[in-house]
Specification:
This protein is of the alpha+beta class. The chain has helices spanning about 15-25, 75-80, 120-135, 145-150, and strands at about 10-15, 30-35, 40-45, 45-50, 60-70, 85-95, 105-120, 155-165. The protein is about 25% helix and about 40% strand.
Length: about 170
């Protein structure tokens, strides 16, 4: 199935470095899912990795890393249906105008969709936890006890589509 083009194409962010700068500046990822109770969105701390596309023009591959308790609504929902949507944003402040409807808000944002995969391998869990710490607290000393790694749930979101958007006044990177 094809994807709809962005309505305001002039605001679309396509450069990898600027997309990365938006993700770096975002403090929270909001993950949208659904289960038998309905749709829900949960804000989470995150880490990420991006692998640039091959020389043949392939799109970059984005991976987001999340952690949570081993049981609960998120884990149950993602286990039953791993399809999720992600949203990250960075506030840029009010844009003033000459009249009320001319006011707006500057922002930069990321929208993505992908599949949530529960990570069970201890080394891969540590990789994800390291990515989360690198984003949350760059340069902080990081050490994970094996007991802690064994009880935390780490989820990898394998992104299949990611787009960026910017409203004037927001240039990052």
């Amino acid at each position: 199935m094809g994807h709809r083009e962005m309505r305001r194409a002039k605001r679309e962010v396509t450069e990898l470095e600027e997309l990365r700068a938006i993700v770096d500046a975002a403090q929270t990822v909001r993950v949208a899912s659904h289960d038998a109770e309905g749709l829900f969105i949960v804000p989470m701390s995150f880490g990420y990795e991006v692998v640039e596309g091959a020389a043949d023009g392939a799109e970059p591959r984005w991976t987001f890393w999340l952690h949570c308790a081993g049981e609960g609504r998120k884990s149950d929902a993602w286990s039953a249906d791993p399809q999720v949507a992600l949203e990250l944003d960075v506030e840029g402040g009010v844009i003033s105008g000459d009249f009320s409807c001319a006011y707006s808000y500057a922002f930069a944002s990321i929208m993505a969709s992908g599949r949530a995969v529960r990570v069970t391998d201890a080394d891969e869990k540590v990789r994800g936890l390291n990515a989360i710490m690198a984003h949350m607290a760059p340069g902080a000393p990081v050490k994970f006890q094996p007991e802690a790694v064994s009880v935390v749930d780490v989820w990898r979101i394998d992104v299949d589509r990611l787009t960026g958007k910017r409203r004037e006044g927001m240039r990052l990177g």
